[in-house]
Design a protein that fits this description.
The protein is α/β, with parallel strands linked by helices and 342 residues long. The protein has a single domain (6-337), classed as TIM Barrel, CATH 3.20.20. The protein has helices spanning 6-11, 32-38, 44-48, 51-64, 78-83, 104-109, 115-118, 120-133, 146-155, 163-171, 173-197, 214-231, 248-252, 267-273, 292-306, 325-337, and strands at 70-71, 88-90, 94-96, 139-144, 201-206, 237-241, 258-261, 278-283, 311-315. Strand 7 (258-261), helix 14 (267-273) and strand 8 (278-283) form a beta-alpha-beta unit. The chain is globular and about 60 Å long. The relative contact order is 0.14. The model has no long low-confidence stretch (mean pLDDT 97). Coproporphyrinogen III is lined by residues 24-29, 38, 44, 71, 73, 75-77, 89, 94-95, 142, 158, 205, 207, 318.
Amino acid sequence: MLNNDLVLRAARGEKTERTPVWLMRQAGRILPEYRALREKFPDFKTYIKTPEAVVEATLQPVDILGVDAAIIFSDILVIPEAMGLDYEMVEKKGPFFPKKIENEQDIKNLTIANPAEKLSYVTDAIKLAKSALSNRMPLIGFAGAPWTIFAYMTEGSGSKTFSKARKWLYCEPQASHLLLEKITQSTILYLKAQIKAGADLVQIFDSWAGILPPKQYQTFSIKYISQICDAITEVPITVFAKDAYFARAALSNLNCQVVGLDWCMDIAESRKLIPNKTLQGNFDPCNLYADKKTIKLETEKMLKAFGSERYIANLGHGLYPDIEADKVKYFIEIIKEYKHTN
Ligand code: CP3
């Protein structure tokens, strides 16, 4: 039994005494304590492959920021690597794949990731983090949505347009489906391994949902997220599809418990379009650059609009590295102190 199970209860649609809160990208560069630890490692990948270091980064936001859930410190790109496509995390630039997916043969050469063989550094870290948390609160596991992982694997890096990735959908739809199926199967095995290791809830990040036209989004993304949601029955699942305002009704039909909202999605409209799920989000991370008075006003506005039930407070996307930890702490305090009147 967890001492603080607010996030899990809200995810299941149960009543909570107050609104629970955690933040996407709560671990990492906003904390000087993380930056100090990270300096001891040559690169990000070595860091996330060192379970003891992962546990420290996972627990820092719990102790320093006061959130209601921990999220395992890792990255969505561990899946391409486990399927046979190596990546580098270039300082200040982001992911880079020395050899990206360029033709059907490249897809055929990929394997379905075997978590026991290739991702034990994540599951070992989850086991250690669960023990370090000693039932204080839930631990969130995660993976990228197949479309977002596909986008990095075919583009070879981050991109403003992901036009190389999108070209695949128009020019090679069958091969695209083959790759998406392989990623989906790998992701299901990976999430199940995370749950077996102790993850209490899992989140699927579809960071590049918003660049597809609605019909393609249905065919090339929702279809595969749906397969993942149907396969994961052990713990609640959150689906966060950034910028997919057009897909909210479709998201409400998924076999998931929580839907994440970005800051552009209207709260009342989202409640209507997704009436049967717990919602998570949707504070604009840039609002945390503002003064404390503005942060308080806007946070309370958001809490009131979501109401007291079926809600997990969070941001509309991850924290940016230059947001002050003190303002983040303040945002969390306001949420924890807020008394709903509705
Ligand atoms: O606190 C947490 O949320 C847990 C850790 C976490 C990281 N990445 C650590 C990280 C999580 C949940 C992710 C998910 C992730 N990774 C996503 C989905 C969420 C989103 O932001 O849309 C995506 C698209 C990635 C891919 C990725 N990883 C990019 C584009 C980058 C470079 C840009 C950046 O933010 O620096 C990363 C690197 C990365 N992942 C860092 C961290 C802390 C920075 C590297 C470092 O600290 O050295």
